[in-house]
Amino acid sequence: MSIKRRDFLKTAAGSSLALAAGIRSGPAEAKEQRLSPEAVGILYDSNLCIGCQACMTACKQANDMPVEPGDQEDIWDRPLDLSATTLNIIKMYDGGETPAFVKRQCLHCLEPACVTACPVSALEKDQRTGVVTYDKKACIGCRYCQIVCPYNVPKFEWDDPFPQIRKCQFCDHLFDQGRYSACCESCPTGASLFGPFRDLKQEAERRLQMEPGRYYEFPVNHIGTGKTQTHKAEPYVREIYGAEELGGTQVLLLSGVDFTKLGLPKVRNKSYVSDVESISSTLYSYMLLPAAVFGGLLYVSKRNGKHE
Ligand code: SF4
Ligand code: SF4
Ligand code: SF4
Predict the structure, then answer these.
(1) For the residues 204-217, what does the mean pLDDT come to?
(2) Which ligand is nearest to the CA of 156?
(3) Which long-range contacts (CB under 8 A, 24 or more apart) does 236-243 make?
(4) pLDDT tens digits for range 241-267
(5) pTM of the predicted model, to two decimals?
(6) Are residues 56 and 148 in the same domain?
């Protein structure tokens, strides 16, 4: 059986990538337990959202992004979906029932496929905050992150001569100023709520226990500030989207309408990253990968020696 040198090198490079991904991801234990106590997140509650889009405007201002007009005459920002100039969007579901809103943005996965796929570590999960960050200087524009993101989040600047990948980074450039995600800072109802991830998870669980029709206090803007508003509890779908999906995410969503109707994909609980981990650790434990790489290199060097 003959093997071309180019094919071998491609296979070896692919295996090394998978291996590198496995090493970077660590063992497949519950990722949430391993999150730093300083990990932050966003809880979006569709039942509290009034569709004002203040969060979209604030996001554009905080990230210095232009409006997306609907047509050439139009001066208003009317994006239809996430894009290289819209990192956060409120969409409306109107399926004949009561209209419901949904917020789309990067979910800051606990086991982010984009981080694993990026060959140059331009995307990283911050050890302290858990924010999935992007380094434009490292990016080579391969767009692997776009292909693997299960939520279709990263966007590419197609019309820029020096294109970057764009996605929400929780406005982490504001953290040093004592500020936080602009969408949550600006939300008038508490529908977008920022804070320590563990507190937000508890708050989401508390809301699922609420009795519909009764009035409760709901934290506003940042769960740590103590600022609250009184709202009547509406019925919730008894699920927190993001609690389990593909290993969990640092953006959690609550809704009164089935999440699939809001355009959120139904995905399995086990992350794809953990599949890569198992494959690479199996290969390593049986020394298959090093043996394959060594065998391939030996073959190539012998063949080159013969030619000479
Ligand atoms: S939602 Fe997509 S872009 Fe965001 S962290 Fe998860 S895989 Fe990466
Ligand atoms: S496009 Fe950039 S960020 Fe995305 S995978 Fe490639 S190098 Fe990484
Ligand atoms: S600012 Fe708050 S209430 Fe207004 S659209 Fe955004 S999430 Fe909904």
Answers:
(1) 98
(2) 2
(3) 236/47, 236/207, 236/208, 236/210, 238/208, 240/201, 240/204, 240/205, 240/208, 242/107, 243/201, 243/204
(4) 999 999 999 999 999 999 999 999 999
(5) 0.82
(6) yes
